């Protein structure tokens, strides 16, 4: 099982936190912790300055060195599991004043120095350390015709593979009967590590067949697998189970389930004209009145200046703030409501 993001050193006086990126999810947390103006130290590669006096010096070889850059821009690569930190070199053995991009990926160590750490950022560091201790979940959603293998991560559900049965005449039509389940088990095994729960779900009896074959072929992986009946298979079945909110204990503890549950609760209140409001203007008015019990805000909006002030005002009035990832179903629903919504202490007149 992957371990948590490690905080290696903290110096409150200097405003420095040194951490190690352990899993892909940590990059998502970092993306939300880093802001332009931070001083970031990390080990990187840069061409050596040529020592000779030649007018046209040969290009020096790339050498590993530690540089401190003043951060200007952070880009999150959702698909290649890297974070690009662009800024001007402020400290290092060479090229001070030049631009450089630090690449953060799993295993990298970096130090972040801020003039002032916001409570929400410190909370994010704490959450990154705690969250990555929580197990991910491997989903297998299937019916007689096709199966989807997906994993639950902190920032959403990721589809890993689709497998079609021979009966469909697609891909595996030439294989003998029974290989469909073998193929599914093999794909799930690639995503699995000891201690990670497996959830098998779908309509019909294919899921029971898979469980039986799984216990036979790979007892360690399937001995503690959970079985759920859903109306649909594939990603829709997984979303259905997430929404139902009655998944395994693990699911209840996951960040995605927590966010999805809050969005569902909000939609319920909106649907019954209850204690809820949505949309930037309406939410701001509710916050001004001190009526916000729980603010739900899409992560893509957090960086906007006035949003930071809104979040602070809700916290000052003893409300809670939950940043919802845009990368899962709950986030998509919140986005359709304007990216921000609130559960209220009391109704406020429009």
> What is the class of the largest domain in the CATH system?
Mainly Beta
What's the main sheet like? 7 strands, antiparallel
Radius of gyration: 24 Å
Secondary structure: number of strands: 16
How many angstroms does the end-to-end distance come to?
50 Å
- Describe the global form: flat
CATH fold title of the largest domain: SH3 type barrels
Number of helices: 11
Work out the strand percent.
Answer: 25-35%
Percent of residues in helical segments? 25-40%
Strand order of the largest sheet: 1-2-7-3-4-5-6
Secondary-structure-based class equals alpha+beta
According to CATH, the homologous superfamily of the largest domain is Pelota, domain A
How would you describe this structure to a colleague?
The protein is an alpha+beta fold and 350 residues long. It has three domains: 6-50 and 60-131, Pelota, domain A (SH3 type barrels, Roll); 137-253, eRF1 domain 2 (Nucleotidyltransferase, domain 5, 2-Layer Sandwich); 255-344, 60s Ribosomal Protein L30, Chain: A, CATH 3.30.1330.30. 33% of the residues lie in helices and 31% in strands. The protein contains eleven helices and 16 strands. The strands form three sheets. A seven-stranded antiparallel sheet has the order 1-2-7-3-4-5-6. Strands 10-9-8-11-12 form a five-stranded mixed sheet, sandwiched between helices. β5 (82-91) and β6 form a beta hairpin.
């Amino acid at each position: 099982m992957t371990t948590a993001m490690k905080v290696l050193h903290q110096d409150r006086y200097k405003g420095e936190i040194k951490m190690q990126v352990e899993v892909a999810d940590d990059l998502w947390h970092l993306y939300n912790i880093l802001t332009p103006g931070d001083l970031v130290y990390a080990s990187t590669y840069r061409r050596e300055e040529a020592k000779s006096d030649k007018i046209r010096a040969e290009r020096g070889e790339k050498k590993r060195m530690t540089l401190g850059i003043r951060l200007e821009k952070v880009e999150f690569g959702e698909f290649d599991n890297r974070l690009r930190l662009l800024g001007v070199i402020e400290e290092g053995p060479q090229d001070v004043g030049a631009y450089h991009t630090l690449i953060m990926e799993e295993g990298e160590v970096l130090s972040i120095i801020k003039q002032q750490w916001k409570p929400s950022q410190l909370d994010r560091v704490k959450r990154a350390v705690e969250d990555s201790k929580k197990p991910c979940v491997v989903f297998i959603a299937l019916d007689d015709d096709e199966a989807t293998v997906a994993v639950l991560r902190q920032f959403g559900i990721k589809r890993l593979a689709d497998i079609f049965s021979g009966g469909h005449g697609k891909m595996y039509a030439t294989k003998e009967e029974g290989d469909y389940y073998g193929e599914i088990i093999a794909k799930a095994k690639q995503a699995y590590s000891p201690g990670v729960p497996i959830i098998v779900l779908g309509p019909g009896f294919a899921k029971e067949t898979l469980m039986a074959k799984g216990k036979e072929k790979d007892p360690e992986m399937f001995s503690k697998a959970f079985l759920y009946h859903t109306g649909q298979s594939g990603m829709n079945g997984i979303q259905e189970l997430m929404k139902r909110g009655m998944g395994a204990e693990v699911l209840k503890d996951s960040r995605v389930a927590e966010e999805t549950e809050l969005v569902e609760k909000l939609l319920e209140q909106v649907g019954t004209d209850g204690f809820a409001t949505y949309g930037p203007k309406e939410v701001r008015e509710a916050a001004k009145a001190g009526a916000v019990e729980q603010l739900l805000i899409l992560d893509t909006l957090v960086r906007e200046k006035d949003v930071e002030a809104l979040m602070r005002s809700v916290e000052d009035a003893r409300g809670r703030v939950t940043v919802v990832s845009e990368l899962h179903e709950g986030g998509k629903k919140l986005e359709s409501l304007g990216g921000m919504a609130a559960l209220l202490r009391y109704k406020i007149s429009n």
